Design the sequence.
């Protein structure tokens, strides 16, 4: 894994990686989080909706909340964006913060391009500000956000 | 409380008394298996998180958890319910993670959360009501190692 150093980063630098999360990947993630379990997020008013309705696992569950196909949990998309940033930073970098907005559903087996764009550098703290995007094969950007990363300096 | 504030024509109700009231979600022990499962589901290859032999000589003296792990774990409870009466379903709208200290296998992490705000917003796809929840994660030394702010949207589909 490449180590990125603060001195080598310029505004406008780009980086990307491809990911295709499978249904199996989603199941592994759900088993970790418990999000697929019915009632994992209790609703006091008894209305439909909320994790546990099958939206992450089945076409039927997805349809019950108006979705065309099963989707990734938002925190799995978040985890993928977190990985994008820590991969970009390398093992000596530190992701200080990550802000992500979910604009559209991400479906199982979507071919996703995850992208980083350097938008600012802060020399005093060796910090770098990033815009981050997830783009699917249909040209949509279902997930986007920003990150703040601290990088090591060359000795 | 009934609200039509926030530049929106949304009429909705929620339990204002839960805003700012912090509750404990629970504690859990972060294990090497938990980290491996999380990494496996993402195809993670960063040796900081996946390679014990490499990590032993790395910056933290051993494997640490990827920062995103804290947003994925289930601490057992969901926090206080704002009881928003709007729409017929909910979606995860966004999240912010702040990472302060490394989290290691064997750490016991305790999560405490509160509803930070509830507000309506109207866009091209109609009106939605957002519930923002902040959660702090503390290790056994009572040090805050990470914090999240998650937005859940209530809407009609």
Sequence:
């Amino acid at each position: 894994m490449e180590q990125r150093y603060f001195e080598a980063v310029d505004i406008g630098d780009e980086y990307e990686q491809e990911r295709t999360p499978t249904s199996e990947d989603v199941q592994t993630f759900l088993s970790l989080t418990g999000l697929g379990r019915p009632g994992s997020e209790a609703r006091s008013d008894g209305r439909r909706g909320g994790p546990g309705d099958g939206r992450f696992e089945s076409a039927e569950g997805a349809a019950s909340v108006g979705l065309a196909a099963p989707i990734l949990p938002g925190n799995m998309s978040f985890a993928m964006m977190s990985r994008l940033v820590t991969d970009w930073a390398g093992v000596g970098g530190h992701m200080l913060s990550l802000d992500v907005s979910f604009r559209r559903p991400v479906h199982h087996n979507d071919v996703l391009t995850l992208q980083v764009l350097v938008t600012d550098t802060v020399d005093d703290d060796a910090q770098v500000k990033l815009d981050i995007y997830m783009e699917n094969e249909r040209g949509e950007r279902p997930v986007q956000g920003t990150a703040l990363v601290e990088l090591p300096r060359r000795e | 409380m009934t609200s039509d504030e926030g530049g929106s024509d949304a009429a909705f109700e929620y339990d204002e008394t839960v805003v700012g009231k912090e509750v404990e979600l629970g504690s859990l022990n972060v294990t090497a298996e938990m980290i491996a499962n999380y990494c496996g589901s993402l195809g993670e290859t960063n040796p900081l998180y996946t390679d014990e032999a490499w990590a032993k000589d790395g910056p933290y003296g051993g494997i640490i958890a990827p920062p995103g792990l804290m947003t994925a774990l289930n601490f057992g409870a969901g926090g206080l319910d704002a009881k928003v009466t709007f729409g017929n379903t909910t979606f995860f709208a966004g999240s912010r993670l702040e990472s302060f200290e490394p989290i290691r296998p064997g750490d016991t992490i305790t999560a405490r959360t509160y509803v930070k705000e509830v507000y309506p917003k109207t866009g091209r796809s109609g009106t939605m009501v957002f519930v923002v929840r902040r959660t702090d994660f503390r290790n056994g030394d009572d040090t805050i190692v990470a914090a999240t702010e998650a937005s859940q949207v209530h809407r009609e589909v």
